[in-house]
Amino acid sequence: MRYIINKELQAVSDDTITDPQDEILEILDENQARINSKNLCYQRELLRTLDETISYCKIEMLPKAVIGTLLIPDKQTPHTSTISVQFYYEQKHLIIIDDAKHLSDTKALLLDKSFASIDDSYRFFFEFLESLIDGDTVFLQNYERRLATMEESMSDILPKELSMDVTKDRRELLLYHSYYQQLMDMFEILSENITHFFPDEYSSQFQRLLGRVDRLYDNTQMLREYAHQIREMQQSRIDLHQNDTMRILTVVTTIFFPLSLITGWYGMNFNNMPELSHPFGYFILIIICAVIVIGEIIYFKKKGWL
To answer: Which segments cross the bilayer (predicted)?
Structure first.
């Protein structure tokens, strides 16, 4: 679908003859982009980009155009779903290419009233890139609150459940960490504007955008370290619990070891053992065992082992 940017995103058909001063936006799927690429300056480069599998965000500055790809994590399910977007921008002609699955969502974003008031394709392109990180500060704050809740309720959450939650968040944060790093590379190239494709004032605008992404990048790094600390705290609690269990088992084993020695000793049943025939031998042995157990308990309590 085609729209005229400088006429409040007025929709026009493909057959409509537009004024040379009109700035055109096209939102297409891959098949439509291949068909409509015949009159473009860099048709070969665009077709090459369409043939490639989108695996990361990148941008290519050509003398008279800008070509790029975006691999955007889906904020609902970032680890299992991504949004693949390609763009081609030559003077007064911006093409946004999305897969058929997300094309309607992309149209809804670009046809929003916040974009309708823009009458300049350079500004429209800039706002489109800026929309990639809109709300991400709040989005990362939600991760921070979730991690803080995990830390506070660590004693109430089963170790296995906590480990799964922290691992999931760490994997998602790693994904966003890589995503912001790729955006930083993109915006750095745009701010350098080595082909002078953009007006000079946009260099500072892209530099400002680069600063915002840099802060998001640092924030994800901090959150990843926070998640790692929670994981280490959880492992420390597990180790402490295991140490307590082993200490108790060791003390119990130590207490009953002398009794095992006594029972093993008198289990030999030699004929010349006078204790076996003594009328009070059984009760004497009980008293000796009790004294040994009580003495060990008193000793262990003094040492702080019980």
So the answer is: 248-268, 280-300
